[in-house]
Amino acid sequence: MELYYKDLISKDASLEKLVDDLMLVVQGADELAQAAGSRLGELETKEITSRLQQLKAGVQRLRQHAVEGAVAADKLMRRNPYSTAGVAFACGLIAAALFYRRRD
Fold it and tell me: Is the pLDDT of residue 3 over 80?
């Protein structure tokens, strides 16, 4: 028996929104570096450019990691829907018990 979960991976997921926001920051920083490039020395310009490239690569790795995690979770849910739901329910109960204990 196979279950189908429509829109299991939301297009407006918070991690995807974070990655998109980071890309906007990178683009803004890139534009700022280009605008300030004429006033900066060659060493500063190279350093800003290299750091922007590192930031872009980090954002791309984060996006790829998020996609891989979502695909893995989707595969796990499709292969073992009841077992996965049971484990998630048990983890929720344990977390609730720990929070309740700390509250007292």
Answer: no
Predicted local confidence at residue 103, as pLDDT: 78
Q: Is residue 85 a contact partner of residue 92, using CB atoms and an 8 Å limit?
A: no
Q: What distance in Å separates the CA atoms of residue 86 and residue 44, rounded to the nearest whole number? A: 55
Q: What is the 3-state secondary structure (H, E, C) of the chain?
A: CCCCCCCCCCCCCHHHHHHHHHHHHHHHHHHHHHHHCCCCCHHHHHHHHHHHHHHHHHHHHHHHHHHHHHHHHHHHHHHCHHHHHHHHHHHHHHHHHHHHHHHC
State the CB neighbour count (10 A cutoff) for residue 19: 19
What is the C-alpha to C-alpha distance for residues 37 and 45, in angstroms, rounded to an integer?
6
pTM of the model: 0.52
